[in-house]
UniProtKB/TrEMBL annotation, chain A:
<comment type="function">
    <text>Involved in mRNA export coupled transcription activation by association with both the TREX-2 and the SAGA complexes. The transcription regulatory histone acetylation (HAT) complex SAGA is a multiprotein complex that activates transcription by remodeling chromatin and mediating histone acetylation and deubiquitination. Within the SAGA complex, participates to a subcomplex that specifically deubiquitinates histones. The SAGA complex is recruited to specific gene promoters by activators, where it is required for transcription.</text>
</comment>
<dbReference type="InterPro" id="IPR018783">
    <property type="entry name" value="TF_ENY2"/>
</dbReference>
<comment type="similarity">
    <text>Belongs to the ENY2 family.</text>
</comment>
<dbReference type="GO" id="GO:0005654">
    <property type="term" value="C:nucleoplasm"/>
</dbReference>
<dbReference type="GO" id="GO:0003713">
    <property type="term" value="F:transcription coactivator activity"/>
</dbReference>
<dbReference type="GO" id="GO:0015031">
    <property type="term" value="P:protein transport"/>
</dbReference>
<keyword id="KW-0811">Translocation</keyword>
<dbReference type="Pfam" id="PF10163">
    <property type="entry name" value="EnY2"/>
</dbReference>
<keyword id="KW-0010">Activator</keyword>
UniProtKB/TrEMBL annotation, chain B:
<comment type="similarity">
    <text>Belongs to the SGF11 family.</text>
</comment>
<feature type="compositionally biased region" description="Basic residues">
    <location>
        <begin position="162"/>
        <end position="176"/>
    </location>
</feature>
<dbReference type="GO" id="GO:0003713">
    <property type="term" value="F:transcription coactivator activity"/>
</dbReference>
<comment type="function">
    <text>Component of the transcription regulatory histone acetylation (HAT) complex SAGA, a multiprotein complex that activates transcription by remodeling chromatin and mediating histone acetylation and deubiquitination. Within the SAGA complex, participates in a subcomplex that specifically deubiquitinates histone H2B. The SAGA complex is recruited to specific gene promoters by activators, where it is required for transcription.</text>
</comment>
<comment type="subunit">
    <text>Component of some SAGA transcription coactivator-HAT complexes. Within the SAGA complex, participates to a subcomplex of SAGA called the DUB module (deubiquitination module).</text>
</comment>
<feature type="zinc finger region" description="SGF11-type">
    <location>
        <begin position="93"/>
        <end position="114"/>
    </location>
</feature>
<dbReference type="GO" id="GO:0008270">
    <property type="term" value="F:zinc ion binding"/>
</dbReference>
<keyword id="KW-0863">Zinc-finger</keyword>
<keyword id="KW-0156">Chromatin regulator</keyword>
């Protein structure tokens, strides 16, 4: 299942001390392309639309998450996918975690 | 680590490496897994943004009215200084000492005065403390207990002297009655111990209070006016006492008058 794979990758990256680097990379890419600001704006809209009633975190998550996913520009997504794949292949090539 | 543990770790590591290798080599699997991983990371970031914004809205950091500028970190409900709307919506705190609602901007100085930590308000505080207790002896003790806290704030190298002073003062006060000084006419040669002037002020204040407590039983408001009239007199008295211990010159000049 995709979920398993995702956690697997997390696990492997974590073991090889690459998880932090990867998340940082993704974050900087997304901030650069303005995705973060867009999501923030959408969030604020969602909050202020409800007149005088601040939605709960759960409601916000349900509203904003699908929007956020769609807001990632395709080019950025593709780039990130490529980079991640190459990182994983590198890890596999140069030996799986020398310092376990 | 024991050998067996090492072996186990190695086995585990090799298993993981194998697993990983399989994952990576299978391109389709790799692609899907990387995609889901990326989605996860994006979701995490989104959550972070949501939490942040939600908290800010809940704590009223932003003005809800869309007419004003968004993203004001402070309470934007009050208008600019230049627009000068209304009174500023300052949050009022309740003073634990006097149970009064005090403006937040004035809270610290108020506490200083209220609890007797400041220099000038020391009188008021000790007066209040003194008036709250019934017995006169208790008053003395309470005012004395109020003194060390202030004196400790002062120059530390005078602490030994202060203790000596207090003990002597205790004896003096117990013999005194109605605040008439027995040594008002003394004028002694003085040292230039300017160093101890600062400490003297607090001692003076405490003496003043004690003398006031004896003489006045009125409210703090009345005692303020009387304190001004008494203060000069008592300054002389207290400074005269200190002449005994060879204090600085100004006191002697006042006593001579």
């Amino acid at each position: 299942m995709a979920q398993d794979y995702d956690s697997k990758i997390n696990l492997h990256l974590d073991i090889n001390h690459g998880l932090d680097r990867v998340t940082e990379l993704v974050q900087t890419r997304l901030i650069e392309c303005g995705w973060r600001d867009q999501v923030r704006l959408a969030c604020r809209k969602a909050i202020t639309e409800n007149e005088k009633h601040i939605p709960t975190v759960d409601e916000l998550i349900a509203i904003v998450t699908p929007k956020a996913r769609s807001m990632v520009p395709d080019s950025v997504k593709r780039e990130l996918l490529h980079e991640l794949e190459s990182i994983l292949i590198n890890v596999d090539k140069f030996g799986y975690s020398k310092s376990f | 680590m024991s050998k067996s543990q090492k072996l186990d770790d190695k086995q585990l590591l090799s298993k993981l490496a194998k697993d990983f290798h399989e994952l990576v080599t299978n391109k389709e699997v790799l692609r899907t897994s990387v995609e889901s991983f990326l989605n996860n990371v994006i979701d995490e970031l989104t959550l972070g943004i949501i939490f942040d914004l939600h908290r800010k809205y809940k704590t009223n950091s932003y003005e809800i009215d869309m007419e004003e500028d968004d993203g004001d970190e402070d309470e934007a409900a009050e208008v600019d200084i230049f627009a000068q709307h209304d009174v500023k919506k300052t949050q009022d705190c309740v003073c634990p000492n006097c149970d009064r609602a005090v403006a937040a901007t004035r809270f610290a100085p108020h506490l200083e005065a209220c609890m007797g930590m400041g220099r000038n308000r020391f009188r008021n505080a000790t007066r209040r403390v003194a008036s709250s207790s019934s017995n006169s002896k208790e008053r003395e003790n309470s005012s004395f207990s109020g003194v060390p806290s202030d004196d400790e704030d002062d120059i530390d190298w005078n602490s030994g002297n202060k203790r000596g002073k207090k003990k002597k003062r205790n004896g003096n006060k117990k013999t005194k009655s109605g605040g008439t000084p027995k040594k008002s006419c003394d004028s002694r040669p003085t040292d230039s111990l300017n160093v101890e002037i600062e400490a003297e002020d607090d001692d003076l204040a405490s003496l003043r209070d004690l003398l006031q407590d004896h003489s006045n039983s009125s409210s703090p408001a009345d005692s303020v006016s009387s304190s001004h009239s008494n203060s000069s007199r008592k300054k002389e008295k207290s400074k005269n006492k200190k002449n005994k211990r060879d204090r600085s010159s100004p006191s002697s000049s006042i006593s001579a008058e």
